[in-house]
Every structure is written in C-alpha cells, then in structure tokens.
Task: structure prediction
Amino acid sequence: MGSSLPGADGTFARRGGVMLVGVDEELLPIGQFARLGRLSVKQLRHYDELGLLRPAYVDGRTGYRFYRASQARTALSIGLLRSLDVPLAVVGEVLAGSAGALEGVRAELEEELARRRRTLGLLERVMAGGLPAAKVRVVEEPARRVALVREAASGPEDLGRATSAAVARLMGLRAGAGGAGPVRLVGVFPVDLGEVVEVVACVVLGEDDGWAAEVTEVAEVGVLPGGLFACATHVGPYDQMSLTAHAVLAWCAERRRAVRGPILEVYVSDPAVTPPQELVTELMVGLI
Result:
C-alpha cells in the first residue's frame, strides 16, 4: 500500500496512486505525466525551473513532482512549439497569450530559408561547373575620387542586405542632389570577413559631379586607392560573387602574390534591367 500525502484541506492521497492531493482531480507522478505529455522527465524538470510548466504539487520532503492530467495540453504545446524551432523564451510568451510573439521567430526562419536557398544556388553552380577557376588578369587602376556611404553588416551572410542598403542610400542622395546620367558604382569589402563587416558603396566622381558637395553631411567624399589588382569577371547573381572571389584569391595564392585590401566589385550591369543570371561585375583584389 502506497504512503499517503496530506492535502491542503486535510485529506490524503496515495503517493503512487491516482488521487490528486487536496483537489478533485488525479495526480500523476512525473514519469507517468512525461509519457502523457510526450516529454522526457529531464525536460519537465527543466521547464519547471524556467517556470514554463510548474508541477501541481511538489512533495516538500522528497522533492517528487506531481502533475494534473489537464496540464498535458500545455506539455504537448511546448513540445509542438519546440519542434517548430521556437526558442523557450518565446514559448513562454506564447503560453502567456502574448499577441505577435511568433512574428520574430517567423522572420528568423524566413531569413534562414533565404540563406539556405543562396547556399543551394552556390552548390548547384559548383556542381554544374566544378570548383571556381575564373580567368584572372592583372590590371592597373588609378586612384579615383568617389562619393561613398558606409553600412555595417552583421556578418558574411548579411553582406547582400548591407550592400543593397548602402547602394540605395547613395543613389538616393545622388538623385536628391541633382546627380544624373550613368554612374560607375563600386562596392568595397574587406578581404577578411569577420563577425561585423563594414560595407562601402562608392560612386566614382567626374570633374563635373558637383552634386557630391551638397551631400557631404550624410555621405563622404574620398579617394579609392589605385594600384595593381588581380581581376576577374563575374557573370551571374551577386549572391554568388564569393565563388569568383575564391577563384581570384586561389590564383593569387598559387602565384604567391600577396594581397591587400580591399576587394572591389565594379558593377557593370544595371540590376534594375538585367536578369540576375546575366549581371556582369568586375571583381578586383589589390596586389602588393
């Protein structure tokens, strides 16, 4: 016969049995409840510590946890949300009925999906054409006066967004200041990509580009260094530029040519009217 637990109203329930302590509902030991809620005992203990799923009763002497059968819905909901990659902090918000708690999770999943699609595109290109081995040539470029804006990227995967934002801001400033006609647009990136990367978008200035003087409070006017560059032509989407960069850096390494930053991307095509697979970009790595 199992030992008894005192209820809040002075009644008793069997410890290994089925009577809930002091209430008119059955109590389930943690092992039995774990099977009912499709969670492990370890998970239940962890969720108790986090305040996500408290036991209905904890024996003060033994520390044994007991649950109501009606708590199984909460346990199953936690399991469902975790299977959807919802972080535990957000699970708590959902259980508390917080409106819009899952919006951030959805945005993160969409971002991850987009990253996976980009990776898949790179993989398919390598499968179709082999490891990148672009034709590399050495060119000499003069120093050029440029108008530029800077944008921070949170890491290599954020380069596309940061570059687009920098270019859009720069072109918007140019248009607002009366700049018109074709431009030579250049993206500037560090050779070594860390966790936080600074992206620079530049417009090469001509002698008559007076618009740059009007936006110096929000954009900079500087000089893009010249010198010798290892250069290759990239044809295709911008998010596959890393393949051409790999080919150029491999070419430099094979010839023991020391490189200097930055990496320059000279955008030959207008992405507004050119299909992604036909975009032409000159990728240049500075040589020492």
In short: Residues 4-95 form a domain with the Multidrug-efflux Transporter Regulator; Chain: A; Domain 2 fold (CATH 1.10.1660.10). The longest strand covers residues 144-153. The two ends are 86 Å apart (CA to CA). DSSP finds seven helices and 13 strands in the chain.
